[in-house]
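Convert to structure. Protein one:
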Amino acid sequence: MIQGGGKQKLTSCRRGVQSCKVVLVCAGFFAMTAFAQTNDPAQANGPARTNSSESESPERNAPTRADTNREVIRTYADFDLEAKNYSSAEIVLSKYLAREDQDGILWNMLGLAQVAQQKFAQGCFAFQKAASLLPKGEDRSNALYNYADCLVQGQHLQEGVQVLNRLISEGGQGKTCAEVALDKINQHQIGAGQSLPPYSVNSRGHLRVSGALGFGFDTNVLLLDDLSVNGGVSGQSSAYVSPALQASYWGTLFRERFDSRIMASFTDYLSAAESSYNLAYERIDFLIGSGSFRAGIIQEISYLNRDPFQLYFLNGGVNFQKKMRVDSVTEWDFELPIKYQSYAIDQTADPANVRTGVDVVAKVQWLKIFGSQTRVSSQVNGEGTFTSGDNYKLLGVDWPTQVLVPLLPFELLNTFAFDLGYSDYWKNTQGRHDVNYKVGLGVIKNLSTHLRLSVDFSYQVNSSTLETASYHKQVVGLNLGYDLL
């Protein structure tokens, strides 16, 4: 795509332009002048060979007028694309390809010009033609990636996923870019009508920065990780405002794929009571791996202003991930985070209530795309928490599931989610068992290439044999997100 980092894509498709553009234009001017003065149409493809001695001439491998003319067309089209004269570039390229249709580089450039004008059907044809003409290598990988990008932008998400899987199966230089794009699609960060991340095969990688601003109302504030059991607030409703910032970088490190993410948010509960409550949260992920396997480190910190503002929760550990693609629209994900967690704010005289310890979660997720945009993800998590205090040792399982269904006439993405969980605090002195369920509804609207709006509602109930740990809450929120880079 031209917008949102498209210049990198344009740059990567210009391998045919090897020398200085000014020199090419000057050379092209004289070549086209000579070409225009040639009356014999046969001369357009170079001098005719009349005998074998001519074919063995030292000038046999010299560039023909057709070669020079092709380079001139590439250069002029390249200038138009950089100047965002997409219509002009399309006209120049279309006229040339109408009579010389075997140049994959030019078909790729034509596709870029057409996609920039929202001509997705024509652009997809051009990229497909380019991929069919180009040999395996960077140019072909670029054309296939652009083809997938065009399909996704043109509301054909499933077909775009199929092309990305094809690019992965071919290996080579575009494999990492395709894997990153598929991850973004499966994580619902990219949907139909949006562009894929910029194509690049160099080690510099890609940086993406996004921000969000959320507003909402919570009917039961600060019921976080059993905070109510330790003197937290229960039953207090409040409006809230929550700004967030996230930076992601993906590229290569030691010739392996490298993904990283840093996220920070701050939630201010605008309670009418005598005290206000704020929660600051930060998370860092670093993952490196080859193919479908990745491993790395994770770290989370939460701060809470329980007068004064102080550290509430800290954890860190390692994470292992494995992806297994069944076909172009079905994927299994396996994840094993192992963390050491500390509740620094939880200073208690009773050793049985200390929650510092090791937490292990085994996750299995199934993802599938139905039709062009409908996506279903279902996950089973098994968790074991081995704290210093017996009251918080637990074994649990939960089943989160999400369905995303498009409402095409209004270009909306409807979400439905539910989560059912069970936790057994197997050494709790009061024999604690919790059953938790949560349902949610949401609507997502892409206002522009970089701006999106979402409205969400959730209802959550925790039923526990420990009375102070039982609660229910509703949250309604409005979020505005913007991709800064």
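Protein two, convert as well:
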Amino acid sequence: MGFIGRSNQVVYGPEQTYVSTVQRTDLTFENRTYTYRQGLITDIGSFKTFLIMPRMRFNPKYGTSFQVVLSGLIMQEADEQRMSTPLPMISWFRQF
């Protein structure tokens, strides 16, 4: 199973400072300096995700079974960088 979607990236601008005067409870004033950056979301292209799920099911006796899945995700971003994540699962089934 495969998915193709859009990928975004946050790009930060230059650092800016802001000075604020705050009145304290004892009627004195205090200057506070804040530093911040503005972030912009930019589109960096599409990414691809593949879900692979090979599995085996075992039936030790009638009415019960268990399943072992050795699944994994493989993701490729727009800059051709790949990342993979294993997702092993075990399921137990019973007949009602």
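The mean pLDDT is 81. The chain has one domain: 2-94.
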